[in-house]
Amino acid sequence: MKILNVISETFRAKKAPDSAKLAELLTQTEVETAAARTRLADLEAKRSEMALASESERLAYRSDLTSTRDDIADGDAAIEALRTRHAAAVEAEAEDGRKQVYKAAKAEADKLPGLIDEYAKAAQAVLLAVAKIADIDRVVRAANSDLPAGAAPIADSGRLRSVPAAPREIVKEKTVDLWVREGRREPASEIVQAKVREESNGRGYHRPEHSPVPEYYAKQWFTRREYREARAVIRATGFDSVVLPDAYAPKPANDRPVLVEHVPYREAA
């Protein structure tokens, strides 16, 4: 079988075949071995016919039988060997992948001590800022509780950081003459507005797709208004709810004490 020569050349190469190549060789070997079995069955079916053939024909026939049986045996052996090597290659490649992931994770983990120290400094700065903001808010609240005559309340940190409410805002208005379907109160869509055909009496009609019955319309005046919706106030999260995790677990107050116990000799053994 040709595949056996291909397998031999593949394994003699400097670079060992990977799992994909081994899978390809395995599939081709299975195909050629199955073809050899079919060929052997055809030869066996000719045995009674070849018994009456000439000696030279019988010798050639026997040679074909032997060669085909050998091909099948070699193919089965190659399939078993390729399956073993393919499984080993798959596991080796998976292990290489795990090693690469581990190496990359280890390189990232090596950055952790420095980053944790950076966090500890930054967290301390944040906590100091939060404490200072809280002190200022207390001063502002005290002043706002007893304002001088005519003075506006001072904005505290919550007001400065929140988004104020906004009323409904009309952006643009204009008067428009639109088609309204008979029996309706709202104007037709912009797509239908463009498709309505006006009759001489001022009435209009439109025949929707896949409908034999036309729809009739009449003109009506509307105020077209563009507006922005009202918006409720959006309050920022209070600084009093800020909770930062410690950079490191707190160290125990004392070292672990040395204790004494007595273990029966048999249990100790």
Description:
- It is a single chain.
- This protein is an alpha+beta fold.
- Among the domains are: 2-104, Methane Monooxygenase Hydroxylase, Chain G, domain 1; 165-232 and 253-264, no CATH class.
- 54% of the residues lie in helices and 12% in strands.
- It has helices at residues 2-12, 19-45, 47-50, 55-109, 112-144, 157-161, 190-195, 265-268; strands at residues 169-181, 197-198, 204-206, 215-228.
- A 4-stranded antiparallel β-sheet has the order 1-4-3-2.
- α1 runs antiparallel to α2.
- The radius of gyration is 45 Å and the shape is flat.
- The two termini are 66 Å apart.
Features:
269 residues; alpha+beta; Methane Monooxygenase Hydroxylase, Chain G, domain 1; four-stranded antiparallel beta sheet; 12% strand
Sheet/helix structural class: alpha+beta
CATH class of the domain at 2-104: Mainly Alpha
CATH domain fold name of the domain at 2-104: Methane Monooxygenase Hydroxylase, Chain G, domain 1
The Cα radius of gyration reads 45 Å
What low-confidence regions span 5 or more consecutive residues with pLDDT below 50?
none
Average pLDDT metric: 92
